[in-house]
Design goal:
By secondary structure, the protein is of the alpha/beta class. Helix content is 38%, strand content 17%. It contains 9 helices and 14 strands.
């Protein structure tokens, strides 16, 4: 009889981590462990608390990571924990580098100390490519990294750390760069989630019928987070250690188009306006972030199945329910 596979998800209480845990519980018989920060909010995983094992730990504290590995003894590690928002990174660049790059080193050194060599999926970001010129779009695995914000710089450093540990110690690391993915549970620091949150508040007469926005001209690939969770599972199962895979859909929209789609979903659509808030405009912006995903799709057979309209509706409903329940 085959031994039950053991999985450790860092960042399990977050947006993607919680959806990935849902997916694994529904589609595998894996034993799921989650690394969470002390006093983390559990709202995203409340529905599965009785089905997983949570372990307190910090990426900046190697002792806690060694303990987490001793408890979980993972066959697979989905390393999703990170400081992952772009805008705050200009105000705390050292913290981003400490958590995202040094934190990954701490995890890898804890693995070496524990004599463990599981398969590891690393979630990188296309932000690392910077503002790619139009003539070099779409982005591929061969596109040169040129980060223009401190979040992207910290993730590029994490990417280099992964390659070094792969080469030096034979770590089985599958690197992914997931393009924009959206859905319920994303924090309001994300543009589309922020728009949905504001629209839900407007519907409840909790704010004036004006949605505050930043740059609306940026163009992106958009994938539903549930499709992305399935993609991460397939990347872990079928990915080749040492390889990099871009993941995303062919649903390409500007942020402005997404905003208008969200407004159209609201019964208050006729009264809702929007205006630029200078505090929401970043010092640097990636105007076009569009990728090519054949390498991953040919390897795994993965295709996204959820349309953006459905993703936006589920996001708006999530914020309606959260506001009604006073849970945010």
């Amino acid at each position: 009889m085959n031994r039950q596979k053991r999985v450790l998800i860092t960042g399990i209480t977050g947006f993607v981590g919680s959806h990935l845990a849902d997916y694994l519980l529904e589609n595998t018989n894996y034993k799921i462990f989650g690394l969470k920060r002390v006093n983390s909010r559990l709202r995203n995983i409340g529905q599965i608390l009785d089905k997983i094992t949570l372990i307190d730990g910090e990426l900046i504290d190697q002792t806690s990571l060694i303990k987490a590995l001793r408890i979980s003894k993972p066959d697979y590690i989905y390393h999703l924990a990170a400081l992952s928002w772009v805008s705050p990174s200009w105000d705390m660049p050292s913290a981003y580098m400490q958590v995202n790059a040094i934190g990954t080193i701490n995890l890898f050194e804890a693995l070496r100390t524990s004599n463990l060599n599981p398969r590891i999926l690393i979630s990188c970001t296309p932000e690392e490519y910077g503002d790619v010129p139009k003539e070099k779009i779409p982005i591929t695995e061969e596109t040169i990294l040129a980060p223009v914000n401190l979040y992207a710089a910290s993730k590029a450093a994490q990417d280099a750390v992964c390659q070094a540990y792969q080469a030096s110690y034979g770590f089985k690391i599958i690197r992914t760069r997931a393009f924009n993915h959206e859905g319920p549970r994303r924090d309001i620091l994300g543009a589309l989630s922020s728009f949905a949150y504001q629209i839900a508040r407007i519907e409840r007469d909790l704010q004036k019928p004006v949605v505050k926005v930043g740059n609306l001209s940026a163009k992106r690939n958009f994938t539903d987070v549930k499709d992305m969770a399935r993609a991460y599972f397939l990347a872990m199962e079928k990915g080749i250690p040492g390889e990099l895979y871009l993941i995303g859909s062919d649903q390409i929209y500007t942020i402005k188009q997404c905003l208008k789609m969200l407004i159209k979903l609201s019964p208050a659509r006729d009264k809702i306006k929007y205006e630029v808030d200078k505090e929401r405009v970043r010092p640097t912006e990636l105007n076009i972030l569009i990728g090519k995903f054949e390498k991953f799709e040919e390897l795994t057979g993965w295709k996204p199945t959820i349309k953006l309209e459905q993703t936006l509706e589920s996001t708006l409903n999530y914020w309606r329910e959260s506001i009604d329940a006073n849970s945010y």
